UniProtKB/TrEMBL annotation:
Gene Ontology biological process terms from the UniProt entry: DNA integration; DNA recombination
Protein name: Site-specific integrase
Domain Core-binding (CB) positions: 75-164
A single MF term (Gene Ontology): DNA binding
The UniProt record lists the keyword Metal-binding: no
Lineage of producing organism: Bacteria, Bacillati, Actinomycetota, Actinomycetes, Micrococcales
Amino acid sequence: MADPKRPKQPHGRSSIYKGVDGWWHGRVSIGVRDDGGADRRHVRGTSKAVVTSKVRALEKLRDEKSVPLPGSAKWTVEAWLIHWLDNIAASHVKATTLSAYRVAVHHHLIPGIGKHKLDALQPEHLESLYRRMLAQPTKFGEQTKPATVHQVHRTIRTALNEAVRRGHLSQNPATIARPPRVDPHDVEPFAVDEVKRLFLTAAKRRNGVRWVLALALGLRQGEALGLQWSDVDFQTHVLTIRRSRLRPDYAHGCGGTCGRRYAGYCPARTKTNADTDTTKSRAGRRQIGLPDQLVWLLDQHQDAQAAERSHAGAAWHEGGWIFATETGEPLNPRTDWAHWKELLKEADIRDSRLHDARHTAATVLLLLGVSQPTIMSVMGWSNPAMTQRYAHVIAPIRQDVARQLGGLLWGDQRGAN
């Protein structure tokens, strides 16, 4: 133990001494604790030079007013990330954002760097993790994409920013670490003939108008699946985007006895999140004018759903969803994605991301000469720079600039039906 008879330094000056335990010790006055007592920090080392260096470093942090709070050294990266997720992030971010944070934390950050002391984490530790992620295949045998690494990087940066803000760290190593470069994904809108083939194929499928909304209005998947009939004004031809459908989260309801790794496959699973959340758009709720053709298609879809409701009888779950299962329940985004892939195959269209339908809508609006503020309103963008991403991809449908949106996409299909 340290020598209890060591001389005290006047006016709170730091002290360095050798204790009876054989170690060199240092004491640095930092300020005042929450209880009003003196906050005097202790360091130790095997030599006077080592302790002197530690004391000078602590004095520098004190002068810069960036000394970590007492007890911060007890945090591991794993403990902090779990605390941050459950007690800080969970209360002020959207459900979709929190879900992405949890994947990054539990699948990548904790297994990769979780055992480090929080105050000992270095930028090099993060960069090493990023390299390992890129070198190791995913559970599906695919190479990890740089965009996935960037999501992990953004998560740890956000979590450590909070640790700095609360005094548990003096600086954030994630702001220094360099993640791999991410090349922007090329915008690949569908050509007009592809859009028409998709529409004709969708007309033969259940919930086919769902894909018309994606291609003509650029609705995000969650926005389309979150639509309810109360959001459609058939008199004024206005669609209001109020909410976004969430991917269901489940917990085991069997007490862990079913043997299934994922709770979603548990026979007694219980749902743990809401069906919807607010939309991604910073503008919040937005309204979109509907072409006459789309109003007619929605009216036909409503009649088809009424027939399904009558056929289902007591099994029908009335939720007011525009796009529902055969028993009225909201569609699962994963199921919706599978339906999109089936539609592409049936229409003999190149394999494409579901989000490419949104790119198509933005491109069509640009070609029609719609003003930038109107495009931003329809697409739900808050940054005007988003429109610049599409400026170089309008050639595939340039010959159709002069046509109106309804005629361009649907022609006069009402008479053909």
